[in-house]
Specification:
The chain is mainly alpha-helical and about 250 residues long. It has one domain: Methane Monooxygenase Hydroxylase, Chain G, domain 1 (Up-down Bundle). About 80% of the residues lie in helices and about 0% in strands. The chain has 6 helices and no strands. Helix 2 runs antiparallel to helix 3, helix 3 runs antiparallel to helix 6 and helix 4 runs antiparallel to helix 5. The longest helix is centred in the first third of the chain and has 40 residues. It is elongated. It starts with a helix and ends in a 32-residue tail after the last helix.
C-alpha cells in the first residue's frame, strides 16, 4: 500500500511538471501575440500588459526549476523519467527567454509610436511573427504528445524564419539608406524582427529537447539556417523586396 502511494505521488509530480510547462507555453504564446499586436496598433496599454506578464512567466520558470530539482533529489529518477524532468527544465528556460523577447518587442511600442513606419515593413514583421508563432504552437503540441516527427518538422521550418528575417533586414537597410528620417523607426523594427527570429530559435531548441526526451539522443546533424544577414554588405538591387510584403 505504501509502495502504491509512493508511485502515485511520483506520477502526480511528473504530471504537475508537464502541466506547468503547458501553462507556461500558453502564456509565452499569448505574450508574443500581444506584443506584435501592440506594435501593429501602437497600443501602449497592451504593451504594458506584456511587460507585466513577463514577471509572472519568470516566476513560473523559477518555480518549475525548483520543483524539478526537488523531484530529482527526492525520487532519483532513471532513464525516461529523468529525461522528462531534465527536458522540462530546458524547455522552461526556453519559454522564459521567449517571454523576454516578447517583452523586448513590447518595450519598443512607445519608441516607434511617434515615427512613421512603412506599412509593407510592418506587414513583413507581422508575417514573420505568424511564422514564429506557428512554429511555437506546433512545438508545444509536439511536447504534449511527445511527437518527434512533428518536432523534426518544426526544426526544419526554422530556416524559413531565418530567410524571412534576412529579407526584412535587407529591406530595412534599404529604407534607412534612402531616407535618414527612417532610421529611428527602422532600427526599432529591426530589433523587433531579430527578437521574433530568436523566438523561432527557441522553438527549435524545444523541438530538439523533445527529440532528446523521447529517444535519449541528440539530433545527428546541424540545424538548417537561413540567416544570411552577416553576408549583406551592399544595397540590394532595385525591386529586391521582401517576398509577400507587396499589396
Amino acid at each position: 500500500m505504501v509502495s502504491d502511494h509512493i508511485v502515485s505521488s511520483y506520477d502526480d509530480e511528473l504530471r504537475y511538471i508537464e502541466r506547468r510547462i503547458s501553462e507556461m507555453g500558453g502564456q509565452a504564446e499569448r505574450m508574443v501575440e500581444q506584443s506584435v499586436t501592440a506594435m501593429m496598433r501602437s497600443d501602449w496599454s497592451l504593451a504594458q500588459t506584456v511587460v507585466a506578464d513577463d514577471i509572472l512567466l519568470d516566476a513560473a520558470q523559477r518555480e518549475l526549476d525548483e520543483r524539478a530539482v526537488m523531484t530529482i533529489a527526492k525520487r532519483q529518477p532513471l532513464a525516461q523519467d529523468l529525461r522528462e524532468i531534465v527536458g522540462a527544465i530546458r524547455i522552461s528556460n526556453d519559454l522564459e527567454r521567449i517571454g523576454d523577447l516578447a517583452k523586448n518587442i513590447a518595450k519598443r511600442v512607445i519608441a516607434v509610436h511617434d515615427h512613421s513606419q512603412p506599412i509593407q515593413l510592418v506587414r513583413g514583421i507581422e508575417h514573420l511573427s505568424d511564422l514564429a508563432l506557428g512554429q511555437l504552437k506546433d512545438v508545444l503540441d509536439a511536447y504534449g504528445t511527445r511527437d518527434i516527427k512533428r518536432a523534426e518538422a518544426v526544426r526544419s521550418e526554422d530556416a524559413n524564419i531565418d530567410a524571412m528575417y534576412t529579407s526584412i533586414f535587407r529591406e530595412l537597410l534599404t529604407y534607412m539608406m534612402e531616407d535618414p528620417r527612417n532610421i529611428t523607426a527602422c532600427t526599432h523594427l529591426l530589433f523587433s524582427a531579430k527578437n521574433i527570429e530568436r523566438i523561432g530559435d527557441h522553438a527549435t531548441n524545444i523541438a530538439e529537447t523533445i527529440y532528446y526526451i523521447k529517444t535519449g539522443e541528440q539530433f545527428d546533424m546541424e540545424r538548417p539556417k537561413g540567416d544570411d544577414t552577416a553576408l549583406i554588405g551592399e544595397r540590394p538591387a532595385a525591386g529586391d523586396h521582401v517576398a509577400g510584403l507587396e499589396g
